[in-house]
Design brief:
Elements lengths: L6 H13 L15 H10 L8 E5 L5 H6 L6 E5 L8 H8 L8 E2 L5 H13 L3 H21 L8 H4 L6 H4 L1
Parallel strand pairs: 1-2, 2-3
Length: about 170
């Protein structure tokens, strides 16, 4: 993360990584205040055994792109909501990368999805993570179904009293 103020959003990514049993590092490495440390972090990530980097930043939000320029690992950028522009500045900064230096970008404040996306990348080669993801997605489906149960047989005709006329819908 670019600053410790980014922690609440990136903590959501950490929670998801923990859920899938994926070890992670949580560091403050600023692209602007400590550029040499940031470059070293990106360059050494592969040899430290990292498989994916999740980088969150607000405002100018250069951290994800700068890390991507120093590593061959996939980088997931998390735009942090900002006080003045709500995070749209962060989003544009992260998503508009030049050709050859990609950064996968999740929604503004999307720490949870960043953690899930990192797990999906790791699941391409780690069967245990793949199985945990499948179970998680099945759980999401069950939660969704529980909020909107299907009508029992015989109740369906009660819910639709008359067929819709296409002309009425236009």
């Amino acid at each position: 993360m670019g600053s410790d103020s980014d922690y609440p959003v990136l903590r959501e990514a950490a929670v998801m990584l923990e859920r899938f049993g994926i070890p992670y590092e949580l560091r403050v490495v600023s692209a602007h205040r400590t550029p040499d440390d940031m470059a070293h972090y990106g360059r050494s990530a592969l040899e430290r055994g990292l498989k994916v980097i999740i980088a969150g930043a607000g405002g100018a939000a250069h951290l994800p792109g700068m890390l991507a320029s120093h590593t061959v690992l996939p980088v997931i950028g998390v735009p942090i909501p900002t006080k003045h522009l709500g995070g749209i500045d962060s989003l544009y900064s992260i998503v508009q990368m030049p050709a050859g230096v990609p950064v996968a970008t999740v929604a503004i404040g999307g720490g949870r999805n960043a953690g899930i996306l990192a797990a999906e990348i790791i699941a391409t080669f780690d069967r245990a993570v793949q199985e945990k993801l499948l179970a998680y997605k099945a759980e999401l489906a069950e939660q969704s179904r529980a909020k909107n149960p299907l009508p029992a047989v015989g109740e369906l005709h009660m819910a639709i009293e008359k067929p819709y006329d296409r002309d009425e819908l236009s």
